[in-house]
Amino acid sequence: MADARAAAEGGADRLEVVRAIRDGGLTPALSLVEAIKGATSLPLRVMVRENAGFDASDAEIEVMRAAAWNFTKLGVDGLVVGFAKSGWLSLEPFTAVIEAAPAVPVTFHRAFDTLEDPLTAVGTLSSVSRIDGILTSGGEGSPEERCSRLRAYAARSGPRVAIIAGGGVDLDAFRLFAGAGCVRQIHVGRLAREGGNAEGPVSAASVRRLRDLADVDA
């Protein structure tokens, strides 16, 4: 809850709630989401993911369906869900999970970054009415190369679905992405935490610095 309060104090627009950051973020406890919702008025997107990969067993899908339903009952802003296998989208488990929570929008998470043909995948995902965001690092390479890809993804997704830059966003990449306008949203982890430590506490001052950078470059 302290992280949520610090993010709000620093001027964050929205929070993503996860556990097990070292695994890329897994489904958090319902009690934690409820506590964070009570501690801040910021919109919450909640991760629904049961292992460190991007596929799931039938048993895990049932667990995720229950979690998605319970988070929806809490009134969260949305869910963060995504599946891929052998470089291709796995839409069957994705649909199974989000159908358990029909009232909320969904961000497709960084399973996207494992895909063989991301540009085509953007078109496919953008046709799913429940998806309003795709989280992606923009691939490998320099910040400029990533920005170029992010811009191409945004052109393919259209105005309804936001391409959200996330993963490997250091300060140089943040400045470039914000200044170039290749995305409308940037998802940060380490940059918002004390000393850039992925498992350190969120720093209101760090969030405020990023907020100021984004506002100056907007």
Description:
Helix 1 (2-10) packs parallel to helix 8, helix 2 runs parallel beside helix 3 (58-74) and helix 5 packs parallel to helix 6 (143-157). With 218 residues, the chain is of the alpha/beta class. It is globular and about 45 Å long. It has a single domain (2-217), classed as Copper homeostasis (CutC) domain (TIM Barrel, Alpha-Beta Barrel), CATH 3.20.20.380. The chain is 42% helix and 15% strand. It has helices at residues 2-10, 30-39, 58-74, 91-98, 118-126, 143-157, 171-180, 204-217, and strands at 15-17, 44-47, 78-81, 84-85, 88-89, 106-108, 131-136, 162-166, 185-187. The strands form two sheets. A seven-stranded parallel β-sheet has the order 1-2-3-6-7-8-9, with helices on one face.
Helix content: 40-55%
Number of helices: 8
Number of domains: 1
Based on secondary structure, the structural category is: alpha/beta
SSE blueprint and pairings:
Elements (H helix, E strand, L loop, with lengths): L1 H9 L4 E3 L12 H10 L4 E4 L10 H17 L3 E4 L2 E2 L2 E2 L1 H8 L7 E3 L9 H9 L4 E6 L6 H15 L4 E5 L4 H10 L4 E3 L16 H14 L1
Parallel strand pairs: 1-2, 2-3, 3-6, 6-7, 7-8, 8-9
Antiparallel strand pairs: 4-5
Helix pairs in contact: 1-8, 2-3, 3-4, 5-6, 7-8
Task: List its salient traits.
218 residues; TIM Barrel; 7-stranded parallel sheet; two-stranded antiparallel sheet; 9 strands
